[in-house]
Amino acid sequence: MSALLQGKRIVVTGAARGLGFHFARDLARQGATVVLCDILAGELAAAVERLSAEDLAVSGQHIDLADPCSISHCFRQIGEAGPIDGLVNNAALATGVGGKSLSEYDPDLWDRVMLVNVKGTWLVTRAAIDLLRDGGSIVNVASDTALWGAPRLMAYVASKGAVIAMTRSMARELGERRIRVNAIAPGLTRVEATEYVPAERHALYENGRALHGAQHPEDVSGAVVWLLSGLSGFVTGQLIPVNGGFVFN
To answer: Which UniProt keywords apply (predicted)?
Structure first.
């Protein structure tokens, strides 16, 4: 049986660590050539080296979602090697963006979260469009916090709600080219970006899931592989919660 993504070229943002790293790894293990993009230059290089040691077809590109010039440069570099078949909009500002009530929230932090998580997702998608082959697939990474309304996390929740809304608009607009656009909404996952989350929040999730217990990156990446493969060829504009049944869509 051939790999699901054999011959495909896919870009993953925020791929130096956490969910993005696992997405890149599992896409490459399914036969894709994967471009890892991240702002963390040192960690990006280490991630590419680690995956290359598995004989996986990967490369790295620096990107800063807060800088439109960086995004444009990144995709110019990617385009020099040819077209792409898929994009995973995973990069986002998540660490240290919660804890304050809506009346205490810092307006500058709000702007920063929206700049990276919302505008950045749009700008990356815009930059990728000309490189995407007709029939390609985009997966936007939202969050189930936007489905249940996690408290004291106002900007992040709002930004991920915007990603869900943008996914639907993108799907309508790109459907003429048979480019599919879907979103996943992971629950709280045990990765570097969630180490700051209080133990009681982890317990809330782990005890409240239909499938009790912690969520790990490998619990999420299968949905991304599926959405980028031909097995989901008539699925677009959809939001798929991947959270063990903590909240249903």
So the answer is: Oxidoreductase
